[in-house]
């Protein structure tokens, strides 16, 4: 690997080999040479494939803008190993995007305990432990940022009042993990704001990805955002455009939008 340019902003995006994470990585590196994006992937092979796909498809990619690290956020030893690898390569982390997530559980009253446990470990516990593990590296940044990728389906307000389409969506397990993640964001912000760290939850909206084993093309035809449109909600926070909304759930359905959590 070429020598790292220490002037670049080092960004780790978990679950960045596909979907929103991949789209966010692409947006960052195709438009601005200041970002060095680390693709976090549970599989090193899939992460490397995503890196090579970006290298082949982004025409104006600058040298040494991409890297990949293996990280399974359901396993503490994998998180620790990823942090050690990034510390060895870069000495710090500027932006952590907790993006990796899953959706498994079915309708209310039809839950399976093993699926609920895995959803909570992946969507809530994993991001919490990942953040805690990377805080020492974030403390070495001049402008540390932490993003938790959430969902409007985790909003208690939306789930309780039938004036929103998300009110009618089943998947109580997934929804509750995102509610819990929002609280993790709030508590993380309270914990770290005195150190100058900025923390948000970001709601990218309904996007045409294969998340939850759904048909991306069918979702697009039904009016879903493209992955790039959804990922813009993430990149605008990284770029400093939502600094007035630290500690909140942001979205880009409208300029400067925030969501009740």
Q: Main traits of this protein?
A:
alpha/beta, 261 residues, Rossmann fold
Overview of this protein structure:
The protein is an alpha/beta fold. The protein has a single domain, classed as NAD(P)-binding Rossmann-like Domain (Rossmann fold, 3-Layer(aba) Sandwich). 43% of the residues lie in helices and 15% in strands. The protein contains eight helices and eight strands. Strands 3-2-1-4-5-6-7-8 form an eight-stranded mixed beta sheet, with helices on both faces. Strand 1, helix 1 and strand 2 form a beta-alpha-beta unit. Helix 1 crosses helix 8 and helix 3 packs parallel to helix 4. The longest helix has 26 residues, at 113-138. The termini are far apart. InterPro entries: Fungal_SecMetab_SDRs, NAD(P)-bd_dom_sf, SDR_fam. Pfam families: adh_short. This is NAD(P)-binding protein. It comes from Rhizodiscina lignyota. Belongs to the short-chain dehydrogenases/reductases (SDR) family.
């Amino acid at each position: 690997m070429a020598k790292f340019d220490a002037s670049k902003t080092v960004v780790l995006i978990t679950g960045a080999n596909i979907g929103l994470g991949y789209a966010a990585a692409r947006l960052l590196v195709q438009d601005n040479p200041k970002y060095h994006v680390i693709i976090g992937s549970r599989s090193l092979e899939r992460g490397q494939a995503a890196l090579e796909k970006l290298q082949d498809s982004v025409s104006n990619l600058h040298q040494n803008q991409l890297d990949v690290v293996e990280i399974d956020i359901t396993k503490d030893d994998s998180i620790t190993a990823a942090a050690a690898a990034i510390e060895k390569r870069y000495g710090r982390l500027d932006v952590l995007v907790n993006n990796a997530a899953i959706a498994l559980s079915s309708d209310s009253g039809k839950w399976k305990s093993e699926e609920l446990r895995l959803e909570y470990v992946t969507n809530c516990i994993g991001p919490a432990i990942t953040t805690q593990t990377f805080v020492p590296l974030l403390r070495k940044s001049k402008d540390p940022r932490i993003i938790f990728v959430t969902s409007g389906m985790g909003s208690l307000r939306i789930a309780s009042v039938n004036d929103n389409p998300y009110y009618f969506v089943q998947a109580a397990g997934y929804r509750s993990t995102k509610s819990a993640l929002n609280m993790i964001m709030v508590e993380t912000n309270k914990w770290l704001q005195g150190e100058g760290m900025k923390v948000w939850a970001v709601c990218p909206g309904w996007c045409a990805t294969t998340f939850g084993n759904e048909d991306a093309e069918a979702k697009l035809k039904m009016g879903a955002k493209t992955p790039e449109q959804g990922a813009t909600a993430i990149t605008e926070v990284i770029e400093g455009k939502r600094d007035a909304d630290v500690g909140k759930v942001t979205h880009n359905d409208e300029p400067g939008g925030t969501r009740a959590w």
